[in-house]
Amino acid sequence: MTTPPDLDLLTIGHSNLPADQFLARLKAHGVTAIADVRSVPFSRRFPWFSNRTLSERLQSKGIAYVTMGDTLGGRPANRALYCDGIADYEAMASAADFHAGIDRVMAEMIRHRLCLMCAEREPLDCHRCLLVGRAITSRGCSIGHILGDGSIEPHSATERELRLAEAYRHRAHRIAARLSDRVRPGRMPKAFMSS
After folding, report:
1. Nearest Cα to 98, choosing from 137, 135, 127, 67?
2. What pLDDT was estimated at residue 168?
C-alpha cells in the first residue's frame, strides 16, 4: 500500500481494529506521528486504544503520539459550544482553542507524517472529517482518510460523497409521503379515484 505523495495529512478511525492491524496500516502509509483528537482518549472495549497503552505501543514502533482532544475533540467541555444539547461544529470552529489546535496540527505536519486519529471507522461519521478536516483543508492542505479496508480516500472525494448524500436527503424530504397523505382503511387514495 502506498500513500499518494501529495497528501499533507492522514486521518484514521481505530474502530475495532486489532492493535497489530492498526499499526500495520500506519506503517504502510508512512505515518510517523499520531494526533489523537478524541475528547476522551480511552477505550474500555478496546483497551489497546487507551492513551497510555497506545502511546507506549506506538513509541515502541517509532511513531510519536500526541493528545489533542482538549482543543480538537468532538465533545467540548465548554457548554457554550452546544446548541440544544448537540455539539455545534460551527461554534467550535470559531473558538480560539480550536484555532490553536489547528495551528499545532500544522506545525506537527512539518515535522512528521501526521495522522489524526479518532474512534469512528467512517470519516463521515466523525468530527475528524466534518470539523477538523474541514478546517485544515480551508488552509490549503490536502487530506486523505485511511478507510476500513486500509485504502485511502481523498478528503475531496469524501466531501463529494457528503454533498451527494445531502442532495438525496434534501430531495427525498421534498417528495416523500407525508403523514397527512395517509390513506385511512377502507378509502382509496385520491390518485386512484376515477373522475
Report:
1. 135
2. 82
Q: Are 143 and 115 in contact (CB under 8 A)?
A: no
CB 124 within 8 A of CB 148: no
For the entire predicted model, the pTM comes to 0.83
CB 73 within 8 A of CB 39: yes
The dihedral over CA atoms of 111, 31, 72, 52, expressed in degrees to the nearest 10, equals -100
CATH of the domain spanning 9-155: 3.90.190
Q: How many C-beta atoms surround the C-beta of residue 76 within 10 A?
A: 22
Query: CA geometry: angle at 150 spanning 5 and 106, to 5°?
Result: 45
How high is the pLDDT of residue 185?
62
Q: List 145's β-bridge partners, or say none.
A: 11, 153
Give the pLDDT means over successive 10-residue stretches in the chain (195 positions).
77 97 97 97 96 97 97 95 93 97 97 97 95 96 96 93 84 68 59 53
- 113 near 30, Cβ under 8 Å? yes
For residue 57, what pLDDT is reported?
97
Domain segments of the chain: what residues? Answer: 9-155
Q: Report helix angle 19-28 to 51-60, nearest 10.
A: 50
DSSP state of 61: T
